[in-house]
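[job 4471] stage=fold_predict status=RUNNING
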Amino acid sequence: MTFFKRLVRDQQGATAIEYGLIAALIAVAAITAMTNLGSTLSGTFSNVNTKMSKGTTA
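[job 4471] inference complete, writing structure tokens
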């Protein structure tokens, strides 16, 4: 019975879960930001490539 009382009062498991959830949210935010940045960079490099191709063929 005392094992269950100690288990209920123990906060280490809850703290680990909270840190895990925070890390997961940060990972999702980072992936979203990197995906958007990647799309923007891809468009920028495509634009530069198009303009440089026109300049080299003239």
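[job 4471] summary: The two ends are 86 Å apart (CA to CA).
[job 4471] exit 0
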